[in-house]
Amino acid sequence: MFRKIKARLLNDNTIIEVDPTTLQNHPDLTPKRDERMLVLMEQATRGELPLFFGAVPLGLILPFDLDYRPDLHPVGKQLIDLAFQEGSEGKLHHIIVYPRGLWFVSSDDYAYLLAAIRGRADYVPCWILGRPDNDLVKDVQGPIAVAEIPKFFGLVE
């Protein structure tokens, strides 16, 4: 049996509890699955891969699914608008990325990435799966304590 999870409604920011077994994927709001990201996140939660914080230049962050366009769907656009508004108010969200050469791949936080692009951000706060090997990343901190990692991935409150 799954425990209920908390979810925020976009229209009025109400917090509700949802049974995760009732959730479904909408084809227009579901990017391609990035198996590499899932493996790296699992390794990090087990302490096999270090997790770092860093301010990554926006121009170095690549979306995993280049064809995914949540901005073309009303719900996706609403989420991007909310992320943009929160960012404009100083409520920055960290994007989970992993290094690929000198680049960084994001495969889950598309709304925040698109909001950062819309706002022409210079840098994006990121949780980096593995040691960043790029001198352009600022304020690198870590590795993060393994016990803290599930919280940063949204697995616990």
Short description:
With 157 residues, the chain is of the alpha/beta class. It has helices spanning 35-45, 74-88, 110-118, 149-152, and strands spanning 5-8, 15-18, 51-57, 61-63, 95-100, 103-106, 123-129, 138-141.
Descriptive account of the structure:
- The protein has about 160 residues and is an alpha/beta fold.
- The protein has a single domain (about 30-150), classed as Conserved hypothetical protein from pyrococcus furiosus pfu- 392566-001, ParB domain (Alpha-Beta Complex).
- It has 4 helices and 8 strands.
- The strands form 2 sheets. Strands 4-6-5-7-3-8 form a 6-stranded mixed sheet. A two-stranded antiparallel sheet has the order 1-2.
- The longest helix has 15 residues, at about 75-90.
- The protein is globular and about 40 Å long.
- The two termini are about 20 Å apart.
- The mean pLDDT is about 85.
* CATH-defined architecture: Alpha-Beta Complex
Give the tally of structural domains: 1
Q: Report the average pLDDT across residues.
A: 83
Alpha-beta content class: alpha/beta
Helix tally equals 4
Using the CA coordinates, give the radius of gyration.
16 Å
**What share of residues are in beta strands?**
15-25%
Number of extended strands: 8
Query: Which residue ranges are poorly predicted, with pLDDT under 50 across at least 5 consecutive positions?
Result: none
